[in-house]
Specification:
By secondary structure, the protein is α/β, with parallel strands linked by helices. It contains nine helices and 23 strands. A six-stranded mixed sheet has the order 5-2-1-9-20-19, with no helix packed on it. Strands 13-12-11-17 form a four-stranded parallel sheet. The chain has a three-stranded antiparallel sheet with strand order 6-7-8. The chain is globular and about 60 Å long. Keywords: FAD, Flavoprotein, Oxidoreductase.
């Protein structure tokens, strides 16, 4: 019996599970899923958990049940590719014949002094719970600084505005216009929404230091009762320490078949993989579809295709509270209520129909 070990229960490995189970998995293969939590977490919704507008239960999805699936829990320390083992901080190693590494990402602090110690994060469900406790225990008219105005920062700021209309919210954006990678019409819409809802945007920001209750922008001190960091990501530490080629962002460089060069038994999915697109849940799922195809062919000793098809990504959707949103769908910019409804519908479908 060969063992496929899925390291991390994120979007990519959940898609692997749902494609192999219940009927696609060969009878001589078993699956072990490793995660720190006893459920899959909807990471795209952590901003709402931190803001206090949804419950913890709302963003948990049960792992599938199957006789060939064994779910194990632990904090992964490293992956020993030479001995084909997953090593842990808190338990005995787990061996594998094939492994799919999907450990996700962590905050990247860009060597800003004090940022790791004095800011809150929404990268894990535990960190999002901590952010929720801090943000929702703030007194009336307190100030919140959000460093980083990408998708996560924008959604957190808007959701927090609806959750706590008394708070002073400051959103630091390093660009001249918020969401500068999106079409200008869309960026202006989001910027105007914040202006109309009393969120202060500081463009061309450069955070040089963070202290307890103080953010330094271009070395100018700005007081804040809480600081949330959403200004960049990097692969999980176990992946950063993996003996493998990496791109400038620290993500693992892979073959066209999504495995390590020179090791066809170790695949990398999602935020840890060097791919020609920005990391996203949608990208992790698209990659997982291809990994399942490759696994099945290799298990059946079938010839691999000469090339793999390009990923067909449908776009990006973001929320501005519960009633407005923005997005790019098939390169078409959308603003207002429609993209918000689309996002809510996709979330419902994922939760109730396994994506």
């Amino acid at each position: 019996m060969k063992k496929l070990v899925l390291i991390g229960g994120g979007y990519g490995n959940m898609r692997v599970l749902h494609r192999l189970l219940p009927n696609q998995l060969p009878s001589d293969i078993s699956i072990t899923l490793i995660d720190r939590n006893p459920y899959h977490c909807l990471k795209t919704e952590y901003y709402a958990l931190a803001a206090g507008t949804i419950s913890d239960h709302h963003i948990r999805v049960s792992f599938p049940e199957h006789p060939s699936l064994d779910v194990q829990y632990g904090e992964v320390a490293s992956v020993d590719t030479k001995n084909k083992q997953v090593l842990f901080h808190d338990r005995e190693p787990i061996s594998y014949d094939d492994a799919v590494i999907g450990l996700g990402c962590e905050d990247k602090y860009h060597n800003v002094p004090g940022a790791p110690e004095h800011t809150y994060s929404i990268q894990t469900i535990d960190q999002s719970r901590e952010a929720y406790q801090k943000l929702n225990n703030l007194g009336a008219n307190a100030s919140v600084a959000i460093v980083g105005a990408g998708l996560s920062g924008v959604e957190l700021a808007s959701e927090l505005r609806e959750s706590r209309d008394d708070l002073k919210i400051i959103l630091f954006d390093r660009g001249e216009l918020i969401l500068s990678s999106f079409p200008k019409r869309l960026s202006k819409y989001v910027q105007k929404w914040f202006e109309e809802h009393g969120v202060t945007i500081i463009n061309n920001a450069n955070i040089t230091k963070v202290e307890d209750g103080i953010v330094y922008n271009h070395d100018e001190a700005i007081s804040a009762d809480a600081v949330v960091w959403t200004a960049g990501i990097q692969p999980n530490k176990a992946v950063r320490e993996l003996d493998a080629e990496k791109d400038p962002q620290g993500r693992i460089v892979l073959t066209p078949y999504h495995n390590l060069p020179g090791d066809e038994h170790v695949y990398v999915v999602g935020d840890c993989a060097s791919l020609p697109h920005a990391p996203s849940a949608q990208l992790a799922e698209a990659q997982a579809e291809q990994i399942v195809q490759i696994l099945l062919k290799r298990w059946n000793n079938e010839e691999l295709p000469e090339t793999m098809p390009q990923f067909k990504l449908k776009g990006v959707l973001g929320s501005l509270g519960k009633k407005a949103g923005f997005g790019l769908v098939n390169d078409r910019p959308l603003i207002g209520r429609v993209p918000r409804l689309l996002k809510s519908g996709l979330l419902w479908m994922y939760k109730h129909h396994n994506g």
